[in-house]
Specification:
The protein is an alpha/beta fold. It has two domains: 185 residues, Bacterial extracellular solute-binding protein, family 7 (D-Maltodextrin-Binding Protein, domain 2, 3-Layer(aba) Sandwich); 126 residues, Bacterial extracellular solute-binding protein, family 7 (D-Maltodextrin-Binding Protein, domain 2). It is built from 15 helices and eleven strands. The strands form three sheets. The chain has a five-stranded mixed sheet, with helices on both faces. Helix 2 crosses helix 11 and helix 2 packs antiparallel against helix 12. The radius of gyration is 20 Å and the shape is globular.
Length: 328
Amino acid sequence: MRGRNWACGVVLGLAGLAAGCGGGGGALVIRTADVQPASYPTVVGLREMDRIVQERSEGTMRLHIHAGATLGRGEVDTLSQTRDGDIHINRVSAAPLQQWAPRMGVLAMPYLFRDEDHMWAVLNGPIGDELLASLDGTGLVGLGWQGAGARSFYATRPLRSAEDLRGLQIRVQANEVMTAMVEALGGSARVVDYDEVYSALRNNVIQAAENNPPSYHTSGHYQAARHVLLDEHSRIPEVIVASQRWWDRLTPDQQAILRAAARGQQAVQRRSWTEMETEALAAVEAAGVTVVEPDEAARQAFREAMGPLYDRYRAEFGDLVDRIQAVP
């Protein structure tokens, strides 16, 4: 009982940043955001994080997960709220974090990782910790990683090679490296909020976008853009971040529980991702979408087109690119 009373006192001392005490045994209620729907693997991971938090805190802490973009139109919006302290924990792509932590931008470099195993070796090692720490001083605290598969292009017209992207208006996240990638392929990059991509495709504001198969499926984008080229140009992970304003008011023990839970959710989230990716590709193909897997010559053309981009960004990211590619 003493622990519960203590936790309730912490909540009341958070100046309204927590939902409060009462009903749920005096738990610290953590306002958590995800723009993806409740069944999506990122939210599955957050639910596992919540389970671990409740277990380790003996019920004195819990995540209140708001999925489906109920706290903001897109990740740029929810990140702003997180930095302000209105959202306590947020699951976002690493891509938009580059505007505050430039070194995060290295994760958007096309063909940076050899495969998924290589990516996880990087993220779960010293380089991953270094990148999370690069958020210090930005109003955000990096807690852990989630997987998001490989991103590929899809369009309202046939795609078979890099050449087919030339001249298209292509949606990208708010990320400098991704913009440069599209421009290197001869396309025109357009930053569009995630929840507006479908209508932009339907109305020919853009002719293409890029994302992973589950996002392509669950968003309904496959109904508007029925041609997929599985070029797998990038593997941009997801990041679980906390509001610095809120975080600084937690006790060291509470912080430790949240960090451990953010790392502990990973196995469940990754398994959910693999299952959903397989199901998503099967579903869109069954719906009549044309899915093209480029041969080695086509993939090589993509890599060669990235040469100037690598020349440009190697200096900006210091030795990060070489260190990442050297990880076994």
